[in-house]
Amino acid sequence: MSGPASALSQGRTMSVRGVLALLRRHTIIVLILLLIVFVLGIELARPGTVNATWLSNALLFAAPLGILAAGQTLVMLTGGIDLSVAAIATGAAYILATSASLGSAAAVALGLSIGIVVGFINGIGIAVLGVQPLVMTLGTGLMTGGILTVYSQQMLASEPRVPDFIQALGAGKMFGVIPIDLFLWAPLAFLMIFGLARSGFGRLLYAVGDNREACKLAGVRVWQVLLADYILCGLFAAIAGLVLVGGTNAADLSLADVYLLPSVAAVIIGGTSIFGGRGGYAGSIVGALILTVLTSILTLLDAPEPIKQILYGAIILLLAAAYARLTD
Amino acid sequence: MSATMVGAPAPFRRFVGRHLAWVGMPALLILALAFTALIHPEFGSFDVQSLALGALPLAMAAAAQAVVVLSGGIDLSVGSLMAVSNVLAASTMQHASFTQSLLLAALILIAGALQGAANGIIVVISRIPDVVVTLTTGFIWGGVALLILEKPGGGAPPEFLDLAAGNLLSPWLPNALILLVVAVALIWLPVRRSRLGLLIYAVGSDRIAAFRSGVGIDSTRILAYIVGGLFSALGGLALTMTTGIGAPLAGTYYTLSSVAAIVIGGVRLTGGRGGMVGPVIAAVLLTLIPTDLIFLNIDPNYGQVIQGTLIVFVVMIGGFVAVLQSRK
Predict the structure, then answer these.
(1) A119, A60, A86: which is closest to A259 by C-alpha?
(2) Per-domain residue ranges for chain B?
(3) Which of B69, B289, B316 to mutate to test the interface with A (most CBs of A within 10 A)?
(4) What ipTM goes with this model?
(5) Does B309 touch chain A if contact means CB atoms closer than 8 Å?
(6) Intra-chain end-to-end CA distance of chain B, in Å
(7) Could you list the pLDDT tens digit for every one of the 328 residues in chain B?
(8) CB atoms < 10 A from the CB of A20, how many?
(9) Whole-prediction pTM
(10) Which terminus of chain B has a smaller tally of CB atoms within 10 A, N or C?
(11) Nearest Cβ partner for A130 among B263, B306, B322
C-alpha cells in the first residue's frame, strides 16, 4: 500500500492516510477487497473458471467451515480457543452415520448431543474451574477422538450410512445453483451477527473478553456466560460435522481433522482478536470465504499435495501477520 | 496433593512441595511399574526395553514442549518437526554407513534447531499468538515432511537403530533409557544452569517484569523455540530408531501427547514453572498405559481416551484446588 502512496504528491498523501485510517476502522473492507482480488486472480489465470457453478460450489464448501468458525468466533471473543471442534465435528458425523437405523431425527439428535456434551465439559473446566481453554479443549479433543476410535471398532458390524436429507443438506443445490447448506448457514450467520451486536448475551461475550474482572465486579455471572459460550461452540461444531458428512457421504474418523487450522485461521484473518473483546462474525465469514477460495486457487495450481499444504499454511501466516500489522 | 500430606512433618512437606516432580513423579512411575508387574507377572527385561524404546520419542517431544511452555509459549508443531527429522533420517540414512548416519544425525539436529528458530522468529515478528503460529507452521512442516517422503519407507543402518534398540550394558538398562537421560541432560542441564535457563523462566513467569529488568524477551523466546526444535529433531531420530523407517504422518500423535506429558509432569501452561524430570517421566507413564491395557485384555485404543481424560482431570483438579485456595 505504501507503493502508490509514495508516488503521490504531499496533499494526496493525506487522503491516502485518510483511506488507511478508514480501512483500519473498517477492516472488513480490506478483507472483502482481498477476497475479490483472489477471485479475480482465479479468473485471470484461468479465464472462464468463475461462473455461477463455481460460485455456488465455493459457497457450498465454505458453509461447514463458516459454521465451525462461528463457534470459534464465539469462544475467541471471550479470549478463549476451542481445539476440540474438529473432534466434535467428526464425532457428530460418525454418530449420525452409525445410528441412522434409529431414524433420521434420532440420529441427528444424537450427533448434535456430542457437541453439547463435549462443549459442556469444556465449559465446566474453563468457566467453573478456570482451566486454560487451550489445554482443556486439547484434552477433550483427544478424549473424544479416542472414544470414537474405540466406538468405531465396536461398530464394525453395522455399516455407517448418511441419511438422505443430510446428503441433500451437505451436497445438494436448489435449482442447480443455490447450495442447500446456505439455508442453514445464512440464518445462522444472521443470528450470529445480530445476536453479537444486539443481544445481551452477545454484548456480554465482548465484555467478558475485554475485561473479565470488571465484569465480575459489575455483577456479571461470568462462569454462566462462558459455559453457555462453549456449549454453543460445541453445538456449532456438531452442526458443521453434519454438513460435512452430508457433503462427503462417508463418515470416517479423520473427517474434520483438516478443518481445525482453517476454523482458527478464518476467525483470526477475519479480525477477531484471540485475546478477546474485539472482532465479530462478519469478518469470520469473509475469512472462511477467503480460505475456501484459496483452496480453490491451490487446486487450480495443479501442484503436488504437500506443496499446496505448505503454501496454504504460509499464506495463512502472511494474512494473519499483515492483519496484525494493519490493526496495531 | 496437600491434603494427603497433612500428617507429615513440616520440613518434609516443604521438601516434597518444592520438588514434587523429583519425588512425586518417580514414585508414581514406580507404582505404575509395580502395578504392571502385578498384572503381568512375567514382566522382565524385555518389557523394560520395549517400554524405554516406546517412550523415547514421546519423552523427547515432552522435553521439546516443556522448554517452549516454560518460556511462556506453546508449540503445536512438535509432531510435524519430529516427522520432518524422522523422514529426513530415514530417506538419507538408508544406504549410509554407521559413521555417515551419525554425521547425518548431527545435520538433522541442526535442521531441527533451525526449524525451531523459524517458529520462534515467526512468533516474535508476526505478533500472532504462539498457538496460531505453531498450529500453522505445524501444517507447513507437515507438508515439508510429505515432500521429503511421500509414503512410509526408507531406513537406517542397524548399528544406528541399536543406539536405542539395543542394550549395551545390561538387559535391564536398555540403550534407549541411557540415550534419553544423556540427551536430556546434555541439552537441558547446560541451558538450565546458564543465564539462558534463568531468562527462560523469567520470561515465562512474567514477561513484563522480565522486560523491565532488561531481559531480551524476543531473543529468549526464540532461543527457547530453538532448544525445543532440537529436542523435536531428537524425537524424530528416536522415532527412526524405534520404528526403523520414516513415516511422514507418524508425528501427528506426538503434538497432543507432548502437551499431555507436560501437563501431567507438572509444567504450568502459562509458563515459568516446572522442570524437565516431570514431563519425561510422564511420557514414560503415558507409554505404559496402552501396554497395561493389553495386559489387562482391554482394547489398547482406550489409551487415547485415558490420555485425554488424564489431561482433563489433571487440569480440572488443578483448577479446583486453585478455586478452593482462593475461597480460603
Answers:
(1) A86
(2) 52-323
(3) B316
(4) 0.84
(5) yes
(6) 16
(7) 444 445 566 676 666 666 666 777 888 888 888 888 888 888 888 888 888 888 999 999 999 999 999 999 999 999 999 999 999 999 999 888 888 999 999 999 999 999 999 999 999 998 888 999 999 999 999 999 999 998 888 888 888 888 888 777 777 888 888 899 999 999 999 989 999 999 999 999 888 899 988 888 999 999 999 999 999 999 999 999 988 888 988 877 898 889 888 988 888 888 888 889 999 999 998 888 888 887 887 777 787 788 788 778 877 887 777 777 777 6
(8) 15
(9) 0.87
(10) C
(11) B322
